[in-house]
Write a structure and sequence with these properties.
This protein has 12 helices and 12 strands. The protein is α/β, with parallel strands linked by helices. Bound molecules: S-adenosylmethionine and iron/sulfur cluster.
Length: 347
């Protein structure tokens, strides 16, 4: 009997159909990094001194659209644009508008993006106009000095104006906060009250060991099990079945009426329900955030204007989607589980 690992699909390929991996998981969600560049240098994400990729290595906006189209044809229902900072990619709104035709046909359920908020004041209304309804904004502190220290160059009032613009334009905003030991642990409760007070969900994220950032991960890592236990001393947290299609587990906070999410790659396995893959800004398809195996879609895109090779490369890659990741942070393994930066893979 074939085991899950040896399952290689039918002998005769019926052609591009839905993308189902060897463990029966439907790939219906792609996260696409549109640039490795960013106007911030968050301490857990990038080194101070980053060398960015030459422009020729990046997928053009047309290539990005062709790639997304190929996934939509195979049943992708949700696209998240990320980076780097997606809103610093010139012409990004053209890509969003191009992809939004799939919203009109109903092939795609949602286009969304993850942003640091620095450019939101300028783009919020246009995003709504192009069909975006929800965005995630990453924000790790409400203190100007600490925000600057974490992002190394971010300006909190600018991000706040961006958030105002986003909510005014009608975007549903979820705040993502990376929990950092000794940096923002004391801010988690005030940030939750602030976010819920503005009608925004808050999701806490454990720091993941990605990329050489010149700091010791063990010094940043704050297990969310501890954060949750501390919050439970002061708040009533009720588990929710609510899912956004992502790995967060949500609770309802009785006292605020708001939702709080926990993304715990370190203390919990969320791989069994993983429905996603990631594409970097250079067109490398990663089937798992925490594994090195990848497929080169840029080569397939550039080799031929027709999509046969692209479809074939995607099919072969999904058949290799691994069961899960092997992140570890401990003193004996103080090195990244994967060498690439989150800003390259897209968070
Ligand atoms: N620049 C955008 C932003 O910050 O929202 C999008 C890209 S960023 C890489 C996406 C998300 O990844 C952010 O919420 C960020 O906090 C998170 N992130 C980056 N590096 C991380 C790491 N090592 N561990 C956990 N989360 C990380
Ligand atoms: Fe830029 Fe986002 Fe990485 Fe911060 S987390 S450096 S904002 S890509």
């Amino acid at each position: 009997m074939p085991t899950a690992n040896t399952f290689a699909g039918p002998a005769i390929d019926p052609g591009p159909g839905p993308l189902v991996d060897p463990y029966g998981r439907h790939v219906s969600y792609i996260r696409v990094s549109v640039t490795d560049r960013c106007d911030f240098r968050c301490v857990y994400c990038m080194a101070e001194d980053m060398t960015f990729l030459p422009k020729r290595d990046l997928l053009s906006l047309e290539e990005l659209e062709r790639l997304c189209d190929a996934f939509v044809r195979r049943g992708t229902r949700k696209i998240r644009l990320t980076g780097g900072e997606p809103l610093v990619r010139r012409g990004l709104m053209g890509l969003v508008r191009g992809l939004s035709r799939h919203l009109v046909t109903g092939a795609l359920q949602e286009i969304t993006l993850t942003t640091n908020g620095s450019q939101l004041e300028r783009f919020a209304a246009e995003l709504v106009d192009a069909g975006v309804r929800r965005i995630n904004v990453s924000l790790d502190s409400l203190d100007e000095g600490s925000f600057r220290a974490i992002t190394r160059r971010g300006d909190l009032p600018t991000v706040m104006r961006g958030l105002d613009a986003a909510q005014r334009a009608g975007l549903a905003v979820k705040i993502n906060t990376v929990a950092l030991k000794g940096v923002n642990d004391h801010e988690i409760e005030p940030m939750m009250l602030w976010a819920h007070g503005r009608g925004m969900d808050l999701t806490l994220i454990e720091v993941m060991p990605m990329g050489e950032i010149g700091e010791q991960r063990i010094d940043q890592y704050l297990p969310l099990s501890r954060v949750r236990a501390e919050l439970m001393e002061r708040f009533t947290l009720t588990d929710l079945t609510y899912k956004t299609g992502g790995p967060a587990r949500y609770v309802k906070v009785g006292e605020t009426g708001g939702r709080l999410g926990f993304i715990t790659p370190m203390t919990h396995t969320f791989c069994e329900s993983c429905n996603r893959v990631r594409v970097t800004c250079t067109g490398t398809l990663y089937m798992c955030l925490g594994q090195e195996d990848a497929a080169d879609l840029r080569g397939a895109l550039r080799a031929s204007p027709d999509d046969a090779l692209l479809d074939e490369t995607i099919t072969a890659a999904i058949r290799r989607k691994p069961k899960g990741h092997d992140f570890i942070i401990d003193r004996s393994a103080n090195r990244p589980a994967v060498g690439r930066y989150m800003s390259v893979t897209g968070g």
